[in-house]
Predict the structure.
Amino acid sequence: MSPTSKPLPLAASHYTRTAVALHWVVAGIIICTFSLGLVVSDMHFSPQKLKLVAYHKWLGITVLALVALRGIWRLTHQAPALPPMPAWQQIGAKFTHALMYTLMFAIPFSGWLFSSATGYQVVYLGILPLPNLLAKNKLLADALGDIHATFAWLMFYVLLLHVAAALKHHFLDRDETLRRMLRWRTH
């Protein structure tokens, strides 16, 4: 904490338990999904690849559902105020968060569209068939595959920036930015 900043009360400065849990669960699933996507993109066609692609799709749909839940939670529970920081950092934080939320929807949705355009239906957890959103179309599938991959790599770089900023605030600025996502309030 900087010498000029005054600590906020815990309830006003930290996220709720639900928000913290959703943050870390979604972060973990995104890392797993991205890693699995990298692995399967380099594999030759095989039953093992098909199995791993199915897992990748399941994780992506799980992210989509959890981010929708997180968005609903956020609409009903105000996020804590940012700790005192320069205006450009506040703008950067708001822009980065908006971009991450957009990508957390766009990546799984573009993957679902890609899967539909390739003609392979998403069957969530091998049980629940999700509707194909598009008819099979090779040209469109190729474009959607590129879009999906581009969004995923953009998320990778934005997440690196997000983590770097959190660590900078924690270790250099010694403010509450990271701690507000490590502790939680009870309501």
Summary: The CA atoms of residues 84 and 114 lie 42 Å apart. The domain at 10-181 is CATH 1.20.950 (Fumarate Reductase Cytochrome B subunit). Strands lie at 123-124, 128-129.
